[in-house]
């Protein structure tokens, strides 16, 4: 939850603009608020407008009294100093720095070009940090099968006095078959599922809606869970939610992360190496490797805005590369 009272008015105006005009998601708004507030606290300290003791962190600085006059004095070099501070103090990775950079860039675009509150945009020539190209981690086909088998076992799905096997199995099944994001799974409402046509509407990044087609395994897992899903005493704001917690309210991101961690552990898979997002990578990789999926179709299924994001899955299958070389018509000459 964002405490708007701790923000200067111009930051709250930016958040409102991002939520309404740019139609950014709630999670993105929270990220914008966190990133920009941290940046402004750094600026206040750098401009000697705030003092800290040796054991205090910049995050403790208050920025509700920060003025646009101060913001208008920010230069590109100050932004670079902030990014360097993040890297040295928090050992922020390039991906984190890239996100901070994107937040700062859209913030100053609003202040300078949209609301005309400052005369010069210091982020106009701000470059995004170069990202390391890393291949995504994913489960093998055998590991995926083991995980599904474990998730369907009531013995490993009991937490407290509750048998959550059908729920947990449905969650793992959707992740491994559909490659959906964590927020997309948590946000599923029962009315979003079209059982007649085996498809599901989800809200992805940027509040963009897309259709995910469900295979027989997904449909069966969901229907089996709906039989066990609590019918009584469900919280009023969660009556439409597909997945419910033991408190009979919409399941949280943290609970799903815990479920995946526990199921991975029971399956004998290194839960520190894999995460919910790695299950999304697994689904994409298995579809590309075994399903002969066109890269454009995979892009649509995963909800990637850019094809370049999807193309990483074309580089993960060393077996296909090896087979391609071995099947070269010149191989046996």
Commentary on this structure:
The structure is a single chain. With 333 residues, this protein is mainly alpha-helical. The chain folds into two domains: 4-114, DNA polymerase, domain 1 (Orthogonal Bundle); 141-323, hpI Integrase, Chain A (Orthogonal Bundle), CATH 1.10.443. Helix content is 50%, strand content 5%. The strands form two sheets. The chain has a three-stranded antiparallel beta sheet. A two-stranded antiparallel sheet has the order 1-2. α2 packs across α5 and α7 runs antiparallel to α9. The model has no long low-confidence stretch (mean pLDDT 87).
Fold topology:
Layout: H1 9-20, H2 26-46, H3 68-71, H4 76-89, H5 94-114, H6 141-151, E1 158-159, E2 162-163, H7 165-178, H8 182-186, E3 193-194, E4 199-203, E5 209-213, H9 216-228, H10 253-266, H11 276-290, H12 295-302, H13 307-310, H14 318-326
Antiparallel strand pairs: 1-2, 3-4, 4-5
The DSSP helix count reads 14
Rounded average pLDDT? 87
Overall structural domain count? 2
Distance, first to last CA: 67 Å
Largest sheet: 3 strands, antiparallel
Assigned CATH architecture of the largest domain: Orthogonal Bundle
Overall body shape: elongated
> Which structural class is indicated by helix and strand composition?
mainly alpha
> By CATH's scheme, which homologous superfamily of the largest domain applies?
Intergrase catalytic core
How are helices and strands ordered from N to C?
Answer: HHHHHHEEHHEEEHHHHHH
- Beta-strand percentage? under 5%
Beta strands, count: 5
The portion of residues assigned to helices is 40-55%
Rg on CA atoms, Å: 24 Å
Runs in which pLDDT lies below 50 for 5 or more consecutive residues are none
**CATH topology value of the largest domain:** hpI Integrase, Chain A
């Amino acid at each position: 939850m964002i405490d708007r009272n701790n923000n200067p008015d111009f930051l709250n105006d930016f958040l409102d603009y991002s939520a309404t005009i740019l139609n950014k998601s709630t999670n993105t708004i929270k990220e914008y608020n966190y990133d920009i507030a941290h940046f402004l606290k750094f600026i206040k300290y750098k401009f000697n407008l705030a003092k800290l003791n040796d054991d205090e962190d910049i995050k403790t600085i208050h920025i509700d009294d920060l003025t646009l006059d101060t913001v208008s004095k920010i230069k590109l070099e100050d932004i670079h100093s902030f990014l360097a501070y993040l890297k040295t103090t928090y050992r922020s990775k390039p991906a984190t720095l890239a996100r901070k950079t994107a937040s700062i860039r859209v913030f100053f675009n609003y202040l300078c070009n949209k609301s005309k509150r400052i005369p010069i945009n210091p982020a106009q020539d701000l470059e995004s940090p170069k990202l390391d190209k890393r291949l995504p981690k994913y489960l093998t086909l055998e590991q995926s099968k083991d995980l599904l088998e474990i998730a369907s076992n009531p013995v490993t799905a009991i937490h407290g006095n509750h048998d959550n096997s059908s729920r947990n199995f449905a969650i793992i099944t959707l992740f491994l078959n559909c490659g959906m994001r964590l927020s997309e799974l948590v946000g599923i409402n029962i009315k979003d599922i079209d059982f007649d046509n085996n498809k599901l509407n989800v809200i992805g990044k940027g509040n963009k809606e897309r259709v995910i087609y469900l295979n027989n395994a997904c449909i069966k897992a969901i229907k089996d869970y709906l039989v066990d899903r609590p019918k009584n005493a469900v919280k009023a704001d969660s009556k439409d939610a597909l997945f419910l917690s033991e408190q009979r309210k919409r399941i949280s991101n943290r609970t799903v992360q815990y479920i995946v961690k526990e199921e991975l552990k029971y399956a004998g898979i290194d839960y520190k190496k894999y995460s919910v997002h790695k299950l999304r990578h697994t689904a994409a990789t298995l579809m590309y490797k075994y399903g002969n999926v066109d890269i454009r179709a995979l892009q649509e299924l995963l909800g990637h805005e850019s094809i370049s994001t999807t193309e990483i899955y074309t580089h993960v299958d060393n077996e296909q590369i090896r087979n391609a070389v071995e099947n070269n018509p010149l191989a046996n000459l």
